[in-house]
Specification:
Order of helices and strands: EEEEHEHEHEEEHHHHEHEH
Strand content: 15-25%
Helix content: 40-55%
Number of domains: 2
Number of helices: 9
CATH class of the largest domain: Alpha Beta
């Protein structure tokens, strides 16, 4: 019997729906919320309201494009967490009502696990075990992946996520929201060694990015006192130098994790994995270390329902369902569905 699953993603500011059939993703519909641009960051209440506006049209489009009717669905998967509580509530409430109305099983998905499982949407796919560096605006994790549903966080940030460090730096430089991609583009034309920023190394496999944000703040303050046009004239070099430090911190821990667990397959996932500087640095390091590197297509790096569908499919195969009373969780962790 064919397994068809409708997946819903609403953890932050992307409303997304996807249909998967027997493990093949048929589509990945994403409605972006432009309302946050004028505020320079995601406003949770506005995100929740935008999800309410976008959710039904997005799901309708996903079902329509797939050619699969509601009657042909086998289950509904949704993002339970982590994420913005209001946004999760919109997607989760709809998923539960939709599943209940059709008498379908409900599958809750950990957003961070789904980012990792995005690697199984298309070829080439990693084999187990592998290390995944999961990097986004809210998370920075090193995960040892032993199986589709057997993952262990072996390192994580103790304060800020690397994506936040990118975005905060971009904001200090006056770049438009979202700042990370703009910083990455400018960095490509700059000298990564023009300025020196700290490369913090914590014990073990954990990260810390709060120090570099402070360093950039004071660096710009002091340079602007000397030259009011400093940012304008040295923008590319500043971006390249900050990006070099942030990526260096990530690569130090990736190397250590690979050596610690004897793994030669390395994956990256999450929104920051779209960063071209990170991708190139990891590719270069892989040649030096003899690693095999896996990076999802850009469409599957940012928040999307295709990765939720993939995770939901693996859970469906193992009969892992949840009841209709489950609540969204802003702090849901890998390996913990309580």
């Amino acid at each position: 019997m064919t397994v068809n699953i409708l997946a819903i993603e609403s953890s932050c500011d992307e409303t997304s729906a996807s249909v998967i059939s027997d493990g093949k993703v048929l589509n990945n519909i994403i409605a972006t919320q432009s309302v946050h641009e004028k505020y320079g960051g995601v406003v949770p209440e506005l995100a929740s309201r935008a999800h309410q506006q976008h959710l039904i049209p997005t799901i309708h489009e996903a079902l329509s494009q797939s050619g699969i009717s509601k009657a042909e669905l086998s289950a509904v998967a949704f993002t339970r967490g982590p994420g913005l509580l209001g946004s999760l509530l919109v997607g989760g409430s709809f998923a539960k009502a939709f599943a209940f109305g059709l008498g379908l099983p409900l599958i809750e998905v950990n957003h961070m696990e789904a980012h990792i499982l995005a690697h199984f949407i298309e070829d080439p796919k990693p084999s187990f075990p592998f290390i995944c560096l999961t990097v986004s605006g809210g998370h920075t994790q090193l995960v040892l992946v032993r199986d589709y549903l057997d993952m262990e966080v072996v390192g994580e940030t103790l304060d800020d996520a690397v994506g936040e460090a990118f975005d905060k730096t971009a904001k200090l430089l006056g770049l438009p929201y979202p700042g990370g991609p703009h910083l990455d583009k400018l960095a490509a034309a700059g000298d990564p060694h023009a300025f020196s920023f700290p490369v913090t190394s914590m014990k073990g496999l954990d990260f810390s990015f709060s120090g570099i944000k402070t360093a950039v703040l004071y660096f710009l303050r002091d340079r602007l006192k000397e030259d009011p046009d400093f940012i304008k004239t040295r923008m590319a070099d500043i971006c390249a130098s900050v990006q070099f430090s942030l990526i260096s911190m990530l690569m130090l821990k990736v190397k250590k994790a690979a050596a610690t667990y004897g793994v030669s397959q390395i994956a990256i996932a999450g929104g920051v994995s779209a960063n071209r500087g990170l991708r190139q640095t990891l590719t270069d390091l892989a040649e030096e270390m003899g690693w095999q590197v896996f990076v999802p297509r850009l469409e599957y790096c940012t928040d999307n329902a295709a990765m939720i569908a993939m995770a939901g499919y693996f859970k469906y195969q193992r009969g892992i369902f949840c009841d209709l009373e489950v609540s969204p969780s802003a702090k849901m962790k890998i390996g913990n569905n309580d």
